[in-house]
Amino acid sequence: MTRIVEKVQSPHADAERRRADLTWERIQEQAMQAFTAGNPSTARVSWEKALDIAERHFERGDPRIAASLSNHAYGLMRRGQTHQAGQYFRRAIAAWEDSWCWIPWMAPSTEPDGIEVAAYDRATQDAFYAMIEQGKAITETLWREGRLPEAVGDDWATVKPKSMTDIRRLFSAVFLMPTARSKRTGHHAA
Question: What angle do CA 84, 53, 7 make, to 5 degrees?
Answer without folding.
Answer: 125
